[in-house]
Amino acid sequence: MFTQPHLDLPPLLSASGSVSLPGSKSISNRVLLLAALSEGQTWVHDLLDSDDTQVMLNALEQLGCQLIKKEHSVCITGLGGSLKNTSELTVFLGNAGTAMRPLCAALSLLGANVTLTGVQRMYERPIKDLVQALEQIGARIEYLQEPGFPPLKLQRSTIKISAPIEVRGDVSSQFLTALLLALPLSSQDSDIQIQVLGELISKPYIEITLNLLAQFGVQVKREGWSTFTIAKGSKYTSPGEIHVESDASSASYFIAAGALSAGSEVLKITGLGEHSIQGDIRFVDAARRMGANITMGPNHLEIKANQRQLRGIDLDCNHIPDAAMTLVMMALFAEGPTLLRNIGSWRVKETDRISAMVKECEKLGAQVEEGPDWIRIQPIKATQWQSASIHTYDDHRMAMCFSLAAFNPSARTIRIEDPRCVGKTFPNYFETLFKLVQTQGDVIPVICIDGPTASGKGTLASEVAKRLGFHYLDSGALYRLSAFMATESGIALELTNEKAIVDLVSKLSLRFEGSSIFANGREISQLIRSEVVGMNASRVSAMPLLRGALIDLQRSFKCLPGLVADGRDMASVIFPSSQLKIYLTADALTRAKRRHKQLISMGISANMDSLYADLKARDERDMSRTVAPLKPAADALLMDNSDLSIEQSLEWVLNCWQSKNIA
Q1: By the number of CB atoms within 10 A of the CB, which of 284, 461, 520, 653 ranks highest?
Q2: Active site residues
Q3: Confidence (pLDDT) at 663
Q4: pLDDT-based confidence at residue 604 (cuts at 50, 70, 90)
């Protein structure tokens, strides 16, 4: 998952290929709680691994559930309707409404003494209507800060249900879902009836709840969307195992990406299809109304590119409250305005999504209007898109939605602030997106950091890559690897043996994972870092056949979202059209002192005079070789880092990069 402060997205052309999406957040947290309330063990497969599910799992462990985790599955030994841990607890639930609301109801009926806390945004999300509904049956719930909002303190109480329970349905459907999940715990003596006051919003999410209740043995009768009855004697029964289907809300971003693609590519989404129990699967119908070319099977979707045919629509979005956000982004590319209505629930989500959408779309050059529960979007003309730095408000859906703006026809770079917020539901969203999208090779950003041995280019380049979320190429490692493997195989590092070295290297199975390097399945990162291997690498780097053999391998590292490459000829030979070229110019004595300090800190004995002599000799050899001699590219920025710390050097490079991109 990207963890840097921002992520720059270059212009994207198309999206194609096949993707299997993570499990539904809405289904995952409902199933986890239902399994916890049941008796016996339940295996939950294809569980979403995200911030929201993690806080739910942590809460269930605190309450006494036994968990066995295995890859994307978890086995939960349920509570069987009674708490195993009756001590006073404090449970942290982050910003997960799908955990806070249902746990508030379930723990009230289980008689828990527990404090429910979260992040600051959770304390701004209303829960008053649910609390009032629970207070009707005797629950004792205290607001610890602002009345009507978390954090909450639940106190053990006597629950008595003698009349229908009333709850508002026009703020959040999660209030009704919370009651439906919890009340079967108190249905032994009589039927329990819930009356919904006002129009129930987000009805498809209630359908998910009812479907899952049935899978755990509880049938709920409903009269329209206003009355729900839980039968006397209802009891949760574990289904033994249950599979979580792929998240339909997350699918909306890839449906849109496919529809916004240029050309005739096809994007396939697996794990989701026409039999989905999620309401957001109806996003497909809305996207089709806008002109998207989508075919649907039992367990897959296929989207064919047709960006130029999208058109504006007028739509009541009550049935797709989360996925409707993606329609805003599609509307920016459409012909004619788009009006999305009945989206009042957006205002009480992770942020006020209506207001946030308006502000961020305007940064792109759009004209957007808002009302209490509607938003109207005017499309942006092809030549009038603006580069923008998108504030994401710690809201995963804002980050994922605005990534689609990178398909803009004006070829504008889009910056996503705080990309890590996607961890709430889809931690690997951007990595997944980059595997599917295509762009022109010359717009994939490359930063080259060249310089002599021990100039600190490797440390600097890797830090720059971390800060930008780019891939990292240590080209010197390839030459070190070549020298190490040749020596280990008994091949003398002579020019007459160059072909044998090339043949050896070309047959290697190489794998790079972060800073780790694997050759034929063996991790050799530390083995190639010795001074001897470094000297040998300088020798083989002068071999023209070997350099040619490694060029394509080095260039293959250039992929989205970008690359930081360090070496001696990255800017001059390998990536001559890179957007930023840095050449480090630290003097040999300073570099020798750095290398000496580094080796001593690693417990390796070293002689300062020998290091200095070796560095000068290596510099002379690298600068005088006939193939790609060590020298700055003509348009490189020179940086003497002799007196600079790594932090100062890092900020200098990042400032140079910033000046070339979004202000």
Answers
A1: 461
A2: 322
A3: 46
A4: confident
In angstroms, how far apart are the furthest CA atoms of the chain? 94
Q: What is the 3-state secondary structure of 18-64?
A: EEECCECHHHHHHHHHHHHHCECEEEEECCCCCHHHHHHHHHHHHCC
Q: Residue 317 and residue 335: Cα distance in Å, rounded?
A: 20
- Of 371, 380, 423, give the one whose Cα is nearest residue 22: 423
What SS3 class is residue 77?
strand
CATH of domain 444-660: 3.40.50.300
pLDDT band at residue 616 using 50, 70 and 90 as cut-offs:
confident
What is the rounded CA–CA span in Å between residue 569 and residue 449?
9
pLDDT digits (tens, 9 = 90+) for 197-207: 999 988 999 99
pLDDT per residue as tens digits for the range 160-211:
999 999 999 999 999 999 999 999 999 988 999 999 999 998 899 999 999 9
**In what helix (H) or strand (E) does residue 196 lie, and over which residues does it extend?**
strand 192-197
Cβ neighbours of residue 336 under 8 Å, at least 6 residues apart?
311, 312, 379
The CA distances from residue 484 to 126, 540, 550, in Å, are: 62, 10, 15
Topology agreement, domain 25-235 and domain 444-660: no
**Fold entry, domain 6-22+245-440:** UDP-n-acetylglucosamine1-carboxyvinyl-transferase; Chain (3.65.10)
Task: Specify the CATH number of the domain 25-235.
Answer: 3.65.10.10
Q: What is the pLDDT of residues 568-600, one digit of tens each?
A: 889 999 999 999 999 998 887 888 787 778 777
Tokens of 286: 């809305």
- Domain limits of the chain? 6-22+245-440, 25-235, 444-660
DSSP letters along 328-370, please? HHHHTTSBS-EEEES-GGGGGSSS-HHHHHHHHHHHTT-EEEE
Q: Is residue 307 over pLDDT 60?
A: no
